[in-house]
C-alpha cells in the first residue's frame, strides 16, 4: 500500500547541550502524496534539512505530529517506532559518501539491512539489486569504497539507503559537488525510480534548473515555515515571489520573460526548458 506523508503543525528545534535552539520549523503542515517527486527549496537556514529529518524520525516534533503512513510520530515517540520510520523513509544526507566505512562496497551496503533484521543469506542478492539500480557494475561490490571516484561513492552511499527498501527516498542536495554529467545521470536515475517503481521522492536542492526539469511539486521553506507547496509549474508563474524567496529563475523562463517584454508578445504558457520555449516560439510564429 502506497504511503502518505503528513505533517500537522510541526514545530521543532534542536537541543544544544542544556539549551534549546530557536525554532527551526514553525507550524509546518503539509501532505505529500505517494509517488510524487517533490523538490524542497529555500534560502540557507530555512529548515529544509530539518524537514527531512522530521520525516525520517531523526528530529522529533516539539509540538504537532508527523504521520508516516499509519505511524504517527510526536515528541514522545518510542525508539522502536522511530526505527520503523527510518526504514520507511530512507534519508540520504548531504555528501553521504563521507559516511562510507566498510572494507568492501558490499559490506557497506549490507550494513543497514542487517541492522534492520534482514537475513544474512538475503543481503547479497539485495546488494546486487541496488548496485544495478544505481547504475554501477556488480564487480564494484568487491572493491573498497575508498578506491572509487566521487560520483561512484555517492551512488554506493545511495544504494546503501535503497537497500533498506524504503517507500520514500529523501535526499539532501544529492547532486552537490557532482560535475554536470554526474548530476544529470543521478537526477535521471531518481526520476526513473519515481516513474517506474513509484518511489516517492523528496529532494532538497538549490538548483532551480533541476527543479524545473525533474520535480512535479515544490515546497518552499522560508524561516522555518513552508510558504509554498504546489506544482512546479505554478511556482515559476510568478517571478516576483521567486525573488523574495531568493530563488533563481530557470534560464528558459528568464529568456521567455525578456522576450515577452521586448516583443510585446505573450507566449501561450510558462516555459521551463529550451524545448518548451522553442515549441512556444514556433506556435506564435516567431521562429
Ligand atoms: N544540529 C543542529 N543543532 C543546532 N541547530 C541546528 C542544527 N542543525 C541545524 N540547525 C539550525 O537550524 C536552522 C535550520 O537549519 P537547516 O539545516 O534545516 O536549514 P537548511 O534549509 O537545510 O539550510 P542549508 O541550505 O544551509 O542546508 C538553522 O538556523 C541552523 O543553524
Ligand atoms: Mg540543509
From TrEMBL:
Record's keyword annotation contains Membrane: yes
GO MF annotations, alphabetized: ATP binding; ATP hydrolysis activity; ATPase-coupled transmembrane transporter activity; cobalt ion transmembrane transporter activity
Chief location bin: membrane
UniProt-annotated location(s): Cell membrane
Membrane topology according to the record: Peripheral membrane protein
Signal sequence bounds: none
Gene Ontology terms: cellular component: ATP-binding cassette (ABC) transporter complex
Keywords carried by this UniProt record: ATP-binding, Cell membrane, Membrane, Nucleotide-binding, Translocase, Transport
Enzyme Commission identifier(s): 7.-.-.-
A Pfam family assignment: ABC_tran
Top enzyme class: translocase
Record-annotated ABC transporter domain positions: 5-248
Alphabetized PANTHER family for the sequence: ENERGY-COUPLING FACTOR TRANSPORTER ATP-BINDING PROTEIN ECFA2 (PTHR43553:SF27), HEAVY METAL TRANSPORTER (PTHR43553)
UniProt cross-references to NCBIfam families, sorted A to Z: ECF_ATPase_2
Family affiliation: Belongs to the ABC transporter superfamily. Energy-coupling factor EcfA family.
Function per UniProt: ATP-binding (A) component of a common energy-coupling factor (ECF) ABC-transporter complex.
Complex formation: Forms a stable energy-coupling factor (ECF) transporter complex composed of 2 membrane-embedded substrate-binding proteins (S component), 2 ATP-binding proteins (A component) and 2 transmembrane proteins (T component).
Protein name: Energy-coupling factor transporter ATP-binding protein EcfA2
Organism per entry: Sporolactobacillus nakayamae
Native organism taxonomy: Bacteria, Bacillati, Bacillota, Bacilli, Bacillales
Amino acid at each position: 500500500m502506497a504511503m502518505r506523508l503528513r505533517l500537522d503543525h510541526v514545530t521543532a528545534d534542536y537541543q544544544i547541550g542544556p539549551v534549546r535552539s530557536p525554532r527551526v520549523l514553525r507550524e509546518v503542515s503539509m501532505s505529500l502524496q505517494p509517488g510524487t517527486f517533490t523538490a524542497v527549496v529555500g534560502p540557507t537556514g530555512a529548515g529544509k534539512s530539518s524537514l527531512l529529518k522530521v520525516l525520517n524520525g531523526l528530529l522529533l516534533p516539539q509540538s504537532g505530529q508527523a504521520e508516516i503512513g499509519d505511524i504517527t510520530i510526536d515528541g514522545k515517540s518510542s525508539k522502536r517506532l522511530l526505527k520503523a520510520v527510518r526504514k520507511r523513509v530512507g534519508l540520504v544526507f548531504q555528501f553521504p559518501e563521507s559516511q562510507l566505512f566498510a572494507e568492501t562496497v558490499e559490506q557497506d551496503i549490507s550494513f543497514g539491512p542487517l541492522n534492520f533484521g534482514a537475513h544474512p543469506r538475503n543481503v547479497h542478492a539485495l546488494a546486487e539489486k541496488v548496485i544495478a539500480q544505481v547504475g554501477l557494475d556488480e564487480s564494484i561490490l568487491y572493491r573498497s569504497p575508498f578506491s572509487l571516484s566521487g560520483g561512484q561513492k555517492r551512488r554506493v552511499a545511495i544504494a546503501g539507503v535503497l537497500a533498506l527498501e524504503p517507500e520514500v527516498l529523501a535526499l539532501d542536495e544529492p547532486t552537490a559537488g557532482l560535475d554536470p554529467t554526474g548530476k544529470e545521470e543521478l537526477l535521471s536515475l531518481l526520476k526513473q525510480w519515481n516513474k517506474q517503481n513509484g518511489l516517492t521522492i523528496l529532494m532538497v536542492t538549490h538548483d532551480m534548473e533541476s527543479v524545473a526539469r525533474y520535480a512535479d511539486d515544490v515546497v518552499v521553506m522560508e524561516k522555518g515555515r513552508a510558504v509554498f507547496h504546489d506544482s512546479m509549474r505554478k511556482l515559476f508563474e510568478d517571478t516576483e515571489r521567486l525573488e523574495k524567496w531568493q530563488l533563481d529563475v530557470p534560464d528558459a523562463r528568464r529568456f521567455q520573460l525578456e522576450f515577452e517584454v521586448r516583443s510585446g508578445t505573450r507566449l501561450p504558457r510558462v516555459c521551463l526548458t529550451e524545448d518548451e520555449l522553442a515549441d512556444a516560439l514556433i506556435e506564435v510564429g516567431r521562429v
